[in-house]
Design a protein that fits this description.
Endonuclease, Chain A; 19 helices; 483 residues; 19 strands; 15-stranded mixed sheet; 20% strand; alpha/beta; two-stranded parallel sheet
């Protein structure tokens, strides 16, 4: 009894210290604190281990280093001839009606760049085939960054092309996320090094031991390719066979990716270089990247204006979430969402509720087949409340990995960010805000085609769930801020 009392006292003291740490030093949100206190109370020893692995925030030193390495997108772009000023961009056609959104994104460091040609891919195979062609045609540089770069058929095909281009003298840089690409052995990436390319691992584990990574809760979830500073790719599709639709249980796999030609590529280049400078501790001045041709003079390719918004745990502002909230609250007619995971915080939740109760046509599409059961249970819990508000809920017949937000007839977001707490606050993400009536109309057609392969569910669908499922949904919702 004596030892039990001592142990419980120690646990209580540790929990109290962690509470002080979360409240005053990390300044966490109340729901996150409550979730961790629940885990620490009911699983005292295991909970502490889980907190050390998953709960501890980025260190002040890491945040400072990431910010120190960052290059201001605006500082780069203002030195490129032919780019409009912000005032000129606001007065340019379609942006007149979205001045507030443009200004918000600009305050996050994102410049509105017109004249982009954008191609939308809705499956992995077509995207990979286009990417392979562009990589093979690269003349000067290839900058490529993926959350998952797998050592499988798809990964080997891309890696072989990167090695080939490196041997030809093209400057090739590759960033892969340590957790997302954990199944790919280092010898797989060393091939590129031997061919003359450069490789950076984002948040590598301690002593390069994969099982010891104190930053495993923070992932670089971005998918970025920039070729010769002129062609860019981003979206939801990773370099992996599963994303090509080869996972039988998650078939059909539906995703969204885009190919950009035009000045909008500069933003993707800038995001990549920020990550690269941190990964390899590169100290070149920003002017050198301009001199080396990473930001060539723009040429008008199309009629879409783009702002790229990036976010991550290195910032106290959840930039992508706030951009989404602004888009939703500005809506006049429709808000269409596609996401594999839907775990909103109170602000995002309220924005959708207000839009729906204001007469806006709000629709949310998620997969009918989950890849992560725990996250899906929390998703269903939130969707139940959405359905109670009159929001239309659709379950896609397969796995939907698309991360898109369509608003009215002129605003569209396509990127890497899911509609959940992890993507908004813990992951390094990016999304492209596209101002184009033509692209909106095109994606609205895609969304409507997806509806044909989806089932609309109402409140009865959620009420008919078994009591055990409802219980698990409640538990997963309580812990959802930890995912």
């Amino acid at each position: 009894m004596h030892w039990f009392t001592i142990m419980m006292t120690c646990i209580a003291c540790i929990n109290f210290l962690l509470l002080i740490f979360m409240v005053f030093l990390e300044k966490r949100k109340p729901q996150n604190i409550i979730a961790w206190l629940t885990v620490l109370t009911f699983l005292p020893i295991i909970g502490f281990v889980l907190y050390v692995i998953f709960g501890s925030g980025l260190s002040v030193r890491t945040r400072r280093m990431i910010r120190k390495k960052a290059i201001s997108e605006r500082d780069i772009i203002k030195n490129i001839k032919g780019i409009q000023t912000l005032e000129e961009a606001k007065l340019d056609g379609i942006l007149m009606e979205d001045k507030e959104l443009v200004t918000l994104c600009y305050s996050f460091g994102s410049y509105p760049i017109p004249g982009n040609d954008i191609k939308i891919f809705t499956n992995g195979i077509s995207k990979i085939e286009a990417l392979k062609r562009d990589l093979l045609n690269a003349k000067k540089s290839i900058n490529i960054e993926y959350y998952i770069f797998a050592d499988d058929k798809t990964g080997k095909e891309i890696m072989n092309i990167l090695c080939q281009k490196a041997k030809e003298g093209v400057e090739v840089r590759l960033i892969y996320d340590s957790i997302g690409s954990r199944k790919a052995p280092r010898r797989f990436f060393n091939k590129l090094k031997k061919a003359g390319g450069k490789v950076g691992e984002f948040f590598p584990p301690f002593m390069h031991i994969r099982l010891i990574n104190l930053k495993l809760n923070y992932r670089n979830h971005r998918k970025i390719v920039v070729i010769d500073g002129k062609i860019g790719y981003t979206g939801g599709i990773n370099i992996r066979d599963d994303h090509m639709g080869k996972h039988k249980r998650l078939s059909p796999w539906r995703d969204t990716h885009i190919r950009i030609k035009g000045g909008g590529v500069y933003a993707l280049q800038n995001i990549f270089l920020d990550d690269w400078r941190y990964c390899v501790n590169e100290k070149y001045p920003a002017s050198l990247y301009l001199e080396k041709g990473y930001f060539p003079s723009p040429s008008i390719k199309g009629n879409a204006t783009i702002q790229a918004v990036s976010s991550g745990p290195d910032s106290n502002v959840q930039k992508i979430k706030e951009t989404y909230v602004k888009m939703i609250t500005d809506a006049h007619e429709r808000v269409y969402i596609q996401t594999p995971y839907f775990i909103p915080d109170d602000v995002f939740f309220s924005a959708l509720r207000i839009a729906s109760q204001s007469g806006i046509d709000v629709r949310i599409m998620v997969p009918a087949i989950p890849d992560k059961r725990t996250v899906y249970l929390a998703t269903l819990s939130y969707l139940k409340e959405m359905a109670q508000m009159g929001i239309k809920i659709y379950l896609y017949n397969g796995f939907l990995h698309s991360k898109t937000l369509l608003v009215d007839d002129n605003k569209l977001s396509i990127g890497t960010c899911n509609m959940d707490n992890r993507s908004f606050g813990l992951n390094f993400e990016n999304t492209m805000i596209i101002y184009s009536k033509d692209l909106n109309k095109q994606y609205e057609k895609i969304f409507n085609e997806d509806l044909k392969n989806s089932k609309e569910v109402g409140i009865n669908y959620f009420q008919k769930k078994k009591w055990l499922t409802k219980f698990l949904q409640a538990i997963m919702r309580l812990l959802s801020s930890l995912f």
